[in-house]
Amino acid sequence: MEFATMKDVEMFYKRYAHETSFGVRKNSSRKQANEMVMKQFYCNREGHRDPKWLASCSNRKSRAITRNDCNANIRVVLDRDSAKWVVKQFEGTHNHDMVSSAERSFI
């Protein structure tokens, strides 16, 4: 699958996420010669909360733990010959329940 711009990639994955009922987080990117050549978008439940925030004993109200190491993601790479963004990796499997359709507007 190919996209003309990075904005097209982002809009596609966010639309897919909305239809599938999960949120999106931008994660890593790579640049060469000050030009972006790779970008990854992940499910918003990817990874784990940093342990320093779990052990914190400040007066702040603790937030619910929402991350559970979900691996759903898309990685796109810039093909310099065609100047298009090409999907190099797509993982559509989630390890958690999706948001209900009634709560979808809150993601």
Automatic annotation (TrEMBL):
| Protein name per Swiss-Prot or TrEMBL | FAR1 domain-containing protein
Q: Write down the PANTHER family for this protein, in alphabetical order.
A: FAR-RED IMPAIRED RESPONSIVE (FAR1) FAMILY PROTEIN-RELATED, FAR1 DNA-BINDING DOMAIN PROTEIN
FAR1 domain mapped to chain residues:
12-99
InterPro entries xrefs: FAR1_DNA_bnd_dom
Organism encoding this protein = Cephalotus follicularis (Albany pitcher plant)
Q: Tell me which domain of life the UniProt entry assigns to the organism this sequence originates from.
A: Eukaryota
Tell me one Pfam family matched here. FAR1
